[in-house]
# Entry
Amino acid sequence: MLCSVVMPSMACTGISLLAKDGSYVQARTIEAAEMALESNYVIIPRGYEITSFTPSGRNGLTYKAKYGVVGMSVVKEEFIAEGINEEGLSAGLFFFPRYGGYEKYEPSQNAKTLGDLQVVAWILSSFATIDEMKEALPAVRVVGLDSSAVVHWRIGERSGRQVVMEIVGGVPHIYENSVGVITNSPGFEWHLTNLNNYVNLYAGSAPSHKLGGQELQPIGGNSGFLGLPGDATPPSRFVRAAFYRATAPQRVTGYDTVLQCLHLLNNFDVPIGIEHKANDVPDLISATQWTSAIDLTNRKVYYKTMYNNSIRCIDLAKIDFGKVKYQVHPMDKVKQQPIVEIEID
# Structure
């Protein structure tokens, strides 16, 4: 059996922004409120052989990486939750309970079976474009490795094209994502329909008007967003992320846009404790365990974690994927926030 791995529920929020210079950035949070994800960054070289897990062991689809990959894993190093390859293709998985469903596992089909938590690694190590992935998808059977961890995927190209892939009833569905946002359940099309419930929202302040003899005036700024949902459920996060993204000013460069994404995603940090009863709160600093922003155009991975909010960067241009070895490193070598003390003369 699969090493007794149990994936925690993950409540994640993804956004994307395009810079004025054409740089395209996909960013996300990753949450788990029950346990530390023990995340690593993983370097996969060209030619590295990968064998997928199945529900009965490491005996599924075997293939060699065509492209070098930098990925960020959860729970096990093989479970890459977010990453990018040297061609600028990026992909990530997002929790999708109750609404997704894969093909039934058949041991006789192991040679073409791909575990759902390894789909990101397969995409990034095998393809340069979304269309290449779509063409190859019918040749594999995606199955669940943990019945509690059904996921869906966001896939993007450095051109700015982004799709959401969901498997429902064993059938893959791929949606073009012009909204540039993804969260969790329900399905992506439902979230797009739900946005119509907020047609009254707009940036800025609402105008003053009279109600009978009483003049009503905005209290503070941004009254045009009154009614924007503030809870941490997936539908509310989707709506909030869509409006924050749509009203964010366009920055000049990819670097500026990375910082813009990270600032926006600060609004989606989920504090530990809101999902638990008072006497049942796990010993975690935050439910939001890390936040990443990937510049697909300039092929750079940025991240910060619940332990250390300092932004770190991995530049794919500085990695020779033909020579580098397969590597796994903790995202935090030291699980402590560095504090810079200011000296006063």
The chain has one domain: 14-185+250-330. Helices lie at 119-126, 130-136, 188-194, 234-247, 254-265.
